[in-house]
Amino acid sequence: MRVTFRYGWHLMAVLSLLIATYALLLFFVPQARPPFLRGRTDMLGLAVPLHFVGGGVALALGAFQLNTTLRSRRIQWHRIFGRIYVVSALIGGVAGLRLAIGSQGGMIARAGFAALACAWLFTTVRGFLRIRAGDDIDHRAWMIRSYSLTFAAVTLRIYLPLSLAAGVPFHIAYPAIAWLCWVPNIIVAERLFVAAPARPRMVL
After folding, report:
1. Which of 4, 45, 178, 179 lies at a CB distance of 3.0 to 4.6 Å from 109, suitable for a disulfide?
2. CATH of the domain at 125
3. Which residues span the domain enclosing 103?
């Protein structure tokens, strides 16, 4: 079981770094963005790069923040990167909430992405407040929830091409993926990691 979780963490970290690199590429190279996001100068146009950079940094750092071994060996770095994670997630979440309002896919997709942004902001702030209160255990639980929502950036980019490859039309797949990219993530995080405090070294 321990080996399974170890390899699971490595897979999560690799996928996170790949998508984080992609997000930061879109931040620095606007020409690489989808056509409907290029050249905008309104509030939506401002939210796009903020979401990319905030989400990308949070995605890259978060996986390493949840690694028990790295955390115990470099606790000072954990605290520094934790603050960066919180700020990045808040930037990405606020920008994501703005993007959700104008999302493709209709009201179902917009509601899914808006709920994701609100849950991401709430769990991140809650995790930060718990460590400020000196509650390490509750802090760990809330930050696991937060990162499971950050990881929606990865699962969305897995589900979308798979659905298109399976022949599901975009207008049907996208509203469902707006919910599927994060609801299963937080359920898995809750059942396997948050609900198993007695097995911290086997998980994250």
Report:
1. 178
2. 1.20.120
3. 2-202
